[in-house]
Specification:
11 strands, single chain, globular, disordered N terminus, disordered C terminus
C-alpha cells in the first residue's frame, strides 16, 4: 500500500499486531542519525537520517531513491553497522544490530560506490581474502569467484592482474562480485552501477535479478537511476532531507501524481512531486570524519 507522509508512522512488530507473520528481513523503527560538521568555531549539527521507519520482507528488492544529501547512503551505513545507531532501532532477521552486531555482520554484505580494495592485489586475491574473512570454503570460493566475475563480464584472463590496472567500472564489478561471493541473505547495494557503461550496468542489473531469484536474497538498492529502480525494485522509498516522504510500488507511487501527459506519470514526476527537487540538485551528504 502507498504511504505518503511527512513523519512516518511507527511500524508494529508482528507480535504487536497479533499476527504470526514471518520475521522481517529488515525492520527500521524511528531511526535518526546526526553529524557535527564544520570547523571548531562554526560547528553545526546536521540530521542525515530523520525518524525513518520501514519494513522489508524476505526476498524483496527495496529501492531507496534520493538526491545526494538525502540520507540514503547514511541509512545503508547504519544498517551495515558501519555507523553507530543513536536513536531508533534496526533489526536484521530479528537480530538487533547493536546487541547482536556479529550475528548481523554474518548475514549482510555491502557494495559501495567508493569500495575499498588492496589495489596492488588482483581481483582473485581480493576475493579470496574476503572469502577467508567470511569463512567460505576455499575450493568453493575459487570456482564461484570465476563464475561470478565471468557473469559480470570480467574474463578469466583478467582476474589475476592488479586491480590498479583496471578501470573504475571494472573495479566496481569486482566489488559487486566480492559481496555476492559471501552469499549474504541481506545485500546492501549503495549505487552499485554508478560509473558503469550501459552494457556493464545491464549485466549488473541482470545479475541482481538472478541472485534474488536463485538465492532468495533480500536486497536494499540505493540509486540515482529511475529506470533501474523501476526495473529492479518491488517497492521504493523516497528520501528527502533525511525523511522517508513516500513509499510504495512503482504503480502506487505513480498513482499519487496528477499527470495528464500521454502515457501517464513517470518516476521523475513522482520524485519531483514528493521532494520538490530534481536528482540534479545534489549536495554532498554529511560524513563522519571517522568513517
Amino acid at each position: 500500500m502507498i504511504t505518503t507522509l511527512e513523519r512516518p508512522a511507527s511500524l508494529a512488530m508482528p507480535a504487536e499486531a497479533g499476527q504470526s507473520a514471518a520475521v522481517p528481513a529488515l525492520l527500521i523503527e524511528h531511526l535518526t542519525k546526526t553529524f557535527e560538521v564544520g570547523n571548531r568555531r562554526k560547528r553545526k549539527t546536521v540530521t542525515a537520517v530523520n525518524d525513518v521507519s520501514l519494513r522489508m520482507e524476505r526476498g524483496e528488492i527495496y529501492g531507496v531513491l534520493g538526491a545526494n544529501g538525502s540520507g540514503k547512503s547514511t541509512l545503508v551505513r547504519l544498517v551495515s553497522t558501519l555507523l553507530s545507531v543513536e536513536q531508533g532501532r534496526v533489526e536484521v532477521f530479528g537480530n538487533d544490530i547493536v546487541r547482536d552486531e556479529m550475528a548481523v555482520k554474518r548475514l549482510i554484505n555491502r557494495v559501495s560506490v567508493d569500495a575499498a580494495f588492496f589495489k596492488k592485489l588482483s581481483p582473485a586475491e581480493n576475493l579470496m581474502y574476503a572469502a577467508r574473512l567470511y569463512g567460505v570454503d576455499a575450493r568453493h570460493a575459487r570456482a564461484e569467484m570465476v563464475r561470478i566475475l565471468n557473469r559480470l563480464g570480467i574474463a578469466t584472463s583478467r582476474i589475476n592482474r592488479p586491480l590498479e590496472q583496471m578501470s573504475r567500472g571494472m573495479q566496481q564489478k569486482v566489488s559487486i562480485a566480492r559481496a555476492f561471493l559471501t552469499s549474504p541473505v541481506l545485500l546492501l547495494l549503495d549505487e552499485p552501477t554508478t560509473g558503469l557503461d550501459p552494457r556493464s550496468k545491464l549485466e549488473v542489473q541482470e545479475f541482481v535479478e538472478e541472485i534474488r531469484r536463485e538465492h532468495d536474497a533480500t536486497i536494499v538498492l540505493t540509486t540515482h537511476d529511475m529506470d533501474e529502480a523501476e526495473r529492479l525494485c518491488d517497492r521504493i522509498g523516497l528520501l528527502n532531507d533525511g525523511r522517508l516522504v513516500a513509499e510504495g510500488t512503482v504503480a502506487e507511487l505513480k498513482a499519487t501524481v496528477d499527470n495528464a501527459r500521454a502515457g501517464g506519470a513517470t518516476m521523475h514526476d513522482v520524485f519531483m512531486t514528493h521532494t520538490g527537487r530534481s536528482l540534479d540538485d545534489d549536495i554532498e551528504e554529511p560524513r563522519n570524519e571517522d568513517e
